[in-house]
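Intended use. Records like the one below are meant for learning the mapping from a protein sequence to its folded structure. Do not use them to infer anything beyond what is encoded.
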Amino acid sequence: MANKLTDMSKIRKVIKYHLTGKSKLFISNYLSLSRNTVKKYISLFDTFGMNLEDIAQKTDAELETLFSQTTVETTNPTLEKLYSYFPKMERDLKKVGMSVQHLWESYYKENPDGLKSSQFRHHFRIWSNRVNPVMHMNHKAGDKMYVDYAGKTLSVIDKDTGEIKEVQFFVAILGASQYTYAEASMSQQKEDFVNSVENAIRFFGGTPAAIVPDNLKSAVIKSSRFEPTINETLADFAEYYQTTILPARAYKPKDKSLVEGAVKILYQRIYVYLKEQDFFSVEQLNEKIWKLLDVHNKKKLTARPYSRLELFTEDEKNELAPLPLERFEIKHQSFATVMQNGHVLLNTDKNYYSVPYQYLRKKVKLLYSKTTVEIYYKYNRIATHPRQHKPYVYTTTTEHMASTHQFVAHWSASYFIDWANTIDPCVAEFIVKILDSRNHPEQAYKSCLGILSFEKKVGKQRLINACERALDYKIYSYKAIHNILENKLDQIDSEPEFDLQLPQHQNIRGKNYYK
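Structure written out for the chain above:
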């Protein structure tokens, strides 16, 4: 039957024998094909600028689309020149604002005897379908990064137990240049997925305007045709890198055809070599992946005189947004009720963090990373602390405490000694004696407070005289100063238990809060 397409297996053999130096006559006789048919497919193959590996990578359906076109009239100088212009034109179309019309005008200006606009567009469509029969989307430089996991997993061997553990194969590709990143990760869980996406962005050296993931649960909580719900951690990641998450539509393979095509190619150029070797850690496996990936990115694209790396370096790298200096920290969340002491419990570490006293008994949200703990009440951040990993530690900010508690929090031996020195050195000496007389200085804090508070009640000089007299008696207690001031010298050797009652929301210093 005229114009009936030859079986794809025969086309593959035609190309194979042609590349091994067999004549068209030999190929025609051996495969029972007409000489014109053999000549046609060899002519198309040469026009596409492909090699045997490129042919082997394509499916029969792709080859059928590729070779179903009419033979290019390579004897026509005008068409030869036109088709040599298309690879550069394809690159230029990836630039923002560029159009086919604009590029035709540039072509026609340089070639006044060239094709008109309609024929120009017709031949460009033919060329596009030949060199890439599957991917029809036009990608702008720096616009989108597509990410996905390969369906087939890799494996590493535990050195201690010999157990074989499956690991995931992550792939990311930039739309315009097809520059590719790949790595192995332990799982497809949220933390591993976000970390892999960040590694890809760092590998590319810039942030694309949008990231297009599949509808996996690590990225999308609830899929929808119109407004999918993005995982909160991934949304925070996008905000940190000032990019957008655009999940591919469910059951719409064309939305992610580029990354799926990249996965198929990497199966042949990376995956097959990894299955032949044993690896004992993810790090060791990734080192091998990245070596093979470098070869892949430097390999010339089908029917084009440039590689993915060259296309990325020249056209897309400068279109990516700058990276932040620090890497993104994944945050986890928990909820807690503020305790009566003004602290909340982070259950993960069994640690306590302070919040302003106005939020006592309120329910708050804790967002924590490896280094920080942030506390929110009704979407407002009310406290931030460095994260403590040692259990049962209280982390307290003084400003969070009520005024009474702030004052008590400042109590120390040096605090009372400094206060006493502002009155007189002999008062400071007496305070030191009281502190030294207890097994632990904290046992004397309330006594020190009571003594120093006498200044407001009886005056500075009377307090100084009382301290001098108590030093002479060598009796160091609050009760001794009290009895001297009351002229009860026969009772200065007795020291009842001192109990200071603190008011709830008042400033203590300078007021007589003692019994």
